[in-house]
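Hi all, long-time lurker, first post. I run a small reading group and we've been trying to get comfortable going from sequence to structure in the token notation. Rather than ask abstract questions, I figured I'd post a concrete chain and ask someone more experienced to write out its structure so we can walk through it together at our next meeting. Sequence below, copied exactly:
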Amino acid sequence: MTTQLAVDEAGPAAAPLIALVHGSMDRSTGMLRLSRRLDDHFRVLRYDRRGYGRSVPAGGNHPGPFDMSSQVADLVALLAGRRAMLVGHSYGGNVVLATAATHPDLVAGVALYETPLSWEPWWPGTTAGAAARATEGTPAEAAERFMRRMIGDELWDGLPTKTRDTRRAEGAALVGELSDLAANRPWAFTDVVCPIVLGYGERGATHHREGMTYLHQHFPQSTLFELAGSRHDAPLASSELFAVTIVAALAEAVGEPWSAAAAGLRAGATSSASGE
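-- Answer (accepted) --
Happy to help. Here is the structure in token form:
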């Protein structure tokens, strides 16, 4: 069974393309505020990855597979031959790196924020993702454990029953993709040759800071940013800071036509801040 991916594009059709890739137990709406910061200057593609949000068969769970090669194939199909900058949040950062490694002709540059390196032997076994895949139980139970770790018990318990049921149904995607990520290195450092921008939040977890620092040390073409006051949800909660720091820096490193669009993005942010 195949499943149509839910995709949204915004911004001028002729503008340089950016694709935004969300993380585990998220969906494209988690990137919506960031998209709105960008789409005056860029063409912005967002989509629900397989098994999440609207990219689920009607009346049932996505059949998978949820391995990295399938995630890359989905993104490549949506790019449809168009060259793009790729921005990945959390697990989505590995999707964009793996795409850059295998399809360099389509990828002008990549940005990643707090991306897990689960296959590395030093990666902690105490993260929300590790707990979700390691604890016994059903995929639905794993999804609930993950969400409780990420948003807290009070917020989870306050969600409508239908919303909680929907999130539990995404457990197959969560367990499938995170188990594959822990078992199989998804890309090699030497295969990613495009410009790279890395980011972590000032208020984020220590392992994310260490992971992004590790990538910076091993990618000589990378730039690393700490986003002031930000946590793991920076693309949503700190969308303007994310846009003018992470995305603009990558666009400038990539060059035309993305760099010209970045100049407009920065100018617009300055005007907004000054009240003009």
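A couple of things your group might point at:
Residues 7-117+188-274 form a domain with the Rossmann fold fold (CATH 3.40.50.1820).
The longest helix spans residues 258-274.
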